[in-house]
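Sanity check

After download, print the first record. It should look like this:
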Amino acid sequence: MKSRDEQALQQRWHKHVDEQANTIELAWQQIAPKPQPISQRLWWLATAAALVVAVTYLGWQQQPPSPARSVATNLEQPMLLADNYRLTQLDKQIQLALLRGADTATLDSLWQQRAQLTSPQALQATQ
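Expected structure tokens:
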């Protein structure tokens, strides 16, 4: 059981809390974050955009070159010309021979003809 003094003290405390409730609410409203000015928002947006562009550019620069872009430095293997119709025809003959199950002698003959057409001496003679 509570004594009279404790009850009186508790009543005074509740009265004090009720009086201060509006003040406490106002204090929290004053602490609420203020809206940022537009210039500060734009500054953060511009910084983020610049960072994205920089990371993308650096990532693009560090990609290894694709094999299609690299320059052939092996001079022993000649570059085949697009208009070398004899070579194209020979390749088709090799494919057909393989599909039809030709004998080894025929295939060897076709591969030797192809090697002669793609040799560096044969390409220099056509130039």
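If your output differs, re-run the checksum step. Summary of this record's structure: The chain has a mean pLDDT of 77.
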